[in-house]
Design a protein that fits this description.
Strand content: 5-15%
Distance between the termini: 62 Å
CATH architecture of the largest domain: 3-Layer(bab) Sandwich
CATH class of the largest domain: Alpha Beta
Strand order of the largest sheet: 2-1-3
Helix content: 55-70%
Bound molecules: manganese (III) ion
CATH topology of the largest domain: minor pseudopilin epsh fold
Length: 243
């Protein structure tokens, strides 16, 4: 190696190291912000960094599923919703919720990808490696609406299991301000004006096969049971309080 190129190599190695340190500290800052402040209910058109590692949710959700789901499926929804926004004159600085609430006025591409992007951004935040329990107003509302936490989990699980093909199960506050369960096909969600049950989601569970097939194959029920172990009830409670 010539002297000049060796120098270049040393400089670029140092830059890579510095870059890695910066990236790690930003992730830590982001994690601190997410866990110490109230949940922001608005979701942007950008894909946000995951605040935990791909393997952090094991054994409930495996690392390879998380990596493919986040870097391929969800990244594609993000790319495609931006394309649809550019084609249909949507300002991507505005909250995506405004588009979802009027989704019947947009293309099928917008419906599938605005829904796909929003649903996944919410889903990643809904999961946590830390075990949590329902508390506060959300815990009270669940007991009042469903009788008990176990009965709520049973009804939510039934909605998730009985969704034929691909879709999502939701806990939402409907337009009458009641806490209810619903499920939607494909990448639809309760914010959409085309949804059967309309309202604001507290959390959703992705029951597309890509969300569980590598680990659970045809056993969707086992994946649903595992979801309760990684559901971030603290985040769900903050969202509920803000609705
Ligand atoms: Mn998915």
């Amino acid at each position: 190696m010539k002297k000049t190129s060796r120098r270049k190599f040393i400089i670029s190695s140092a830059a890579v190291t510095a870059g890695s340190i910066i990236a790690a500290s930003s992730i830590n800052k982001l994690f601190a912000a997410e866990t110490s402040t109230t949940a922001a209910n608005a979701i942007s058109f950008d894909q946000q960094p995951l605040i935990y590692a791909y393997n952090a949710l094991e054994p409930s959700i495996d690392a390879m599923t998380m990596e493919i789901h986040y870097t391929k499926h969800a990244a594609a929804y993000c790319k495609n919703v931006k394309e649809a926004a550019a084609a249909e004159g949507v300002d991507i600085k505005k909250p995506i919720e405004e588009v979802l609430k009027n989704i019947s006025k947009y293309s099928v591409k917008m419906r599938n990808n605005a829904g796909g992007h929003y649903n996944h951004e919410l889903f990643w935040r809904t999961l946590s490696p830390k075990a949590t329990q329902p508390s506060g107003k959300l815990a009270d509302a669940i007991t009042k609406s469903f009788g008990s936490l176990d009965e709520f989990k049973k009804q939510f699980g039934d909605a998730a299991k009985s969704r034929f093909g691909s879709g999502w199960a939701w806990l939402l506050v409907n337009n009458d301000k009641k806490l209810v369960i619903s499920s939607t096909p494909n990448q639809d969600n309760p914010l959409m004006d085309v949804a059967e049950v309309k309202g604001t989601p507290v959390f959703g569970l992705d029951v597309w096969e890509h969300a569980y097939y590598l680990k659970y194959q045809n056993k969707r029920a086992d994946y649903i049971d595992a979801f309760w172990k990684v559901l971030n009830w603290d985040f769900a409670g903050e969202r509920f309080d803000a609705i």
